[in-house]
Amino acid sequence: MDALQALAAQLGIADLRGRGFLSVLITFVTAGLFTWFFIPRLRAFAMQVGWADQPNERRLNKTPLPNAGGLAIYGGFLVSIIVAWALRPIAVDLVNIQVLAILLGATLLVLVGFIDDQYGLSPLSRLVVQTLAAVLLLVNDLRVDLNAIPFMPDLPALINQPLSTLVTILWVVGLTNAVNLLDGVDGVVGGVAFVASFVLLATAAQFPDRAAAVVLLAGLSGAALGYLRHNFNPSRIIMGDAGSTLFGYTLAAVSLLGTLKVSAGASLLVPLIVLALPLLDTTQVVIGRLARGIRNPLRHPDKTHIHHRVLARTASARRTAVILWLVALACGAAGMSLQGLRPEAIGGTVLAAALCLFFVAYRRIRAQNLEDAREGNA
C-alpha cells in the first residue's frame, strides 16, 4: 500500500483514501456507469418514437441510427454532479453559483440541441441560444481576463472589460460549435471529449483549490466514456447536437472557472492547447469555405473536416477515431507540459486515458462480434 501511495503522490494524488480523491473517483464512475447502462434503454425507446438520423450521402449509417445519445450523456453527467454534491468534496461550496450557471447553460444547450436533432432549427436561432448561454456565464463572473494572458500588455479597465466580454463570448460559442462540427465519424467526438476533459481533470487535480472544476470534469469525462462504449464503430447510437454542444459548452465554461485557470498568466493557454484539435478543424474548414466564395460557411456542410480527410485515407471509421484520439492525447500532453506538471503525472494521465479508451473500444468490438455470431447461428 505504501508503494501504491508513493506512486499516487507522483501523479499528484495526496491520499488515495482521502475524501477528495474518493469523491472524484465516485463521480467519474457514477457518470460512466449511468451512461453505459442507460443508453441501451434509451436506444430502444428512441427507435420506437423515431428519434433517429436517416441515411444520406453525408452520413456513414446505412440504416436509421438513434440520435438521442446526448440525453444519456447529459443524464450521466447531471446524476454524477448530484452525487458529488451529496458527498461534499472540499471547496465546491465556494463556487456553487458558478457551477449552477454552467449546469444551467449546459441544460439549455442540450434542450435546444435535442430539438434541433429531431425537428431542425436555423443556424441563427442556435447561435442566439449559444450566445445567451455564454452571457449567463458572464453575469456570474466567468470570463476571459485578457490581462491574465502572458505576453500581452495590461489594458485599462475601460478597454479590458468590453474586450474580455467579447472574447469570452467568442470562446464559448466558438468552442461549442467547434466540437459540434467535429462530430462526423463514430467515436471521434466521444473520444476527443473524453481525452480533453480527462486531461483537464488531471491538470486541475494537481492543485488543492480547483475542486469544483475537478468534480465537473470527472462527471463529464465519465459520461463520455460510458457513451463511447456504444458509439465506437459500428455505432449503436449517436450523440447528436445535444451531446456535442454539451461537451463543447461545458469544456469552454469549465476552463473559465476561476479554480481551473492556471496561475497568473497562462489563462486559457492550457485549455486552448488541450482542445486544439476541434479548434483547428473548425478554423481550417471555415477558411477553406470562405476561400471558395461561400459567404456563410456554417450553413454549407461538406467533407473537408479533419475526420473526413483521415477517413478518406484510412477507409476505416475505427482507425480514424483511434488516430484522432492519439492526436488529442498528444495535445493533452503538450498542454499539461505547458502547465508545468511533472513528467510522471503527464505520463500517468496519458496512459490512464489510453487504457480507458482501449477498454471501451474492446468492449464495443467484443459485443459486436458476439452479436454477429448470434446472427450467423440463427
UniProtKB/TrEMBL annotation:
<protein>
    <submittedName>
        <fullName>MraY family glycosyltransferase</fullName>
        <ecNumber>2.7.8.-</ecNumber>
    </submittedName>
</protein>
<feature type="transmembrane region" description="Helical">
    <location>
        <begin position="68"/>
        <end position="88"/>
    </location>
</feature>
<feature type="transmembrane region" description="Helical">
    <location>
        <begin position="266"/>
        <end position="287"/>
    </location>
</feature>
<feature type="transmembrane region" description="Helical">
    <location>
        <begin position="345"/>
        <end position="362"/>
    </location>
</feature>
<feature type="transmembrane region" description="Helical">
    <location>
        <begin position="94"/>
        <end position="115"/>
    </location>
</feature>
<dbReference type="GO" id="GO:0016740">
    <property type="term" value="F:transferase activity"/>
</dbReference>
<keyword id="KW-0812">Transmembrane</keyword>
<feature type="transmembrane region" description="Helical">
    <location>
        <begin position="188"/>
        <end position="205"/>
    </location>
</feature>
<keyword id="KW-1003">Cell membrane</keyword>
<keyword id="KW-1133">Transmembrane helix</keyword>
<dbReference type="Pfam" id="PF00953">
    <property type="entry name" value="Glycos_transf_4"/>
</dbReference>
<feature type="transmembrane region" description="Helical">
    <location>
        <begin position="20"/>
        <end position="39"/>
    </location>
</feature>
<feature type="transmembrane region" description="Helical">
    <location>
        <begin position="240"/>
        <end position="260"/>
    </location>
</feature>
<keyword id="KW-0472">Membrane</keyword>
<dbReference type="InterPro" id="IPR000715">
    <property type="entry name" value="Glycosyl_transferase_4"/>
</dbReference>
<feature type="transmembrane region" description="Helical">
    <location>
        <begin position="321"/>
        <end position="339"/>
    </location>
</feature>
<keyword id="KW-0808">Transferase</keyword>
<feature type="transmembrane region" description="Helical">
    <location>
        <begin position="163"/>
        <end position="181"/>
    </location>
</feature>
<feature type="transmembrane region" description="Helical">
    <location>
        <begin position="211"/>
        <end position="228"/>
    </location>
</feature>
